[in-house]
Automatic annotation (TrEMBL), chains A, B:
<protein>
    <recommendedName>
        <fullName>Pyridoxamine 5'-phosphate oxidase N-terminal domain-containing protein</fullName>
    </recommendedName>
</protein>
<dbReference type="Pfam" id="PF01243">
    <property type="entry name" value="PNPOx_N"/>
</dbReference>
<feature type="domain" description="Pyridoxamine 5'-phosphate oxidase N-terminal">
    <location>
        <begin position="4"/>
        <end position="121"/>
    </location>
</feature>
<dbReference type="InterPro" id="IPR011576">
    <property type="entry name" value="Pyridox_Oxase_N"/>
</dbReference>
<dbReference type="InterPro" id="IPR012349">
    <property type="entry name" value="Split_barrel_FMN-bd"/>
</dbReference>
Amino acid sequence: MAKMTNRIKALFEKVPTAILATATVDGTPNAVPIGAKKIIDDETILISDQFFNKTLENLMANPKVAVTWWEGHEGYQIKGTAIVETTGKRFEDTARWMEERSAKAGFPLKSKGAVIIHVDGIYGVSPGPGAGKKLV
Amino acid sequence: MAKMTNRIKALFEKVPTAILATATVDGTPNAVPIGAKKIIDDETILISDQFFNKTLENLMANPKVAVTWWEGHEGYQIKGTAIVETTGKRFEDTARWMEERSAKAGFPLKSKGAVIIHVDGIYGVSPGPGAGKKLV
């Protein structure tokens, strides 16, 4: 159990892009930039899948993820556990959110799934001797 | 064997920050932003380690890495294999490069190691139906 602070959540919402890292079960990492992201609550973030390829393949076999974001010299990494929902209320809400959001941006996108990530731990990734230290 | 094109190399050199993703042997990913990076040749990149913590622990146990960078809607991901050198010519060159580079930036940093990454494959991470496709 790890709860994101208001500052950590605010930076996640503010940055245009975060990184979603997954891995094969035998430890080959994969890291992709993602923009369609939101905070659900202090322990949960949501990423909408439009174009996931290897990421989705990895998530099907191994739910462990890292999500990293930063701005200037402030940055955070969440270690978490993901589930992918392609039916139900959370998926339908995500699909509607993406439809509205992407229409507004003039670049229509369709969600294929809601990646719901439970936060297991939070680490600093700011440069300096504290890099990598567990924060929460 | 995968060779980076001039365009791929140029974007790597241009972006201020790339992502280095590693994983434990049992597949928990870790992703951190890195700035001290350079191209060695078409199949090799170098990252200087100043503050690696979990990244270094992972690299010691599992050499598989992903390195991702992007600008706007153009982005690339390398899958590669890393070795960490803490003695010898490449490490000494890296230490000198970091010393000069960080002194110039007014933020003195000391390299603890040279992470030399052999490029095994190159993938697109631009949004769109081609996301994740192998390029080289």
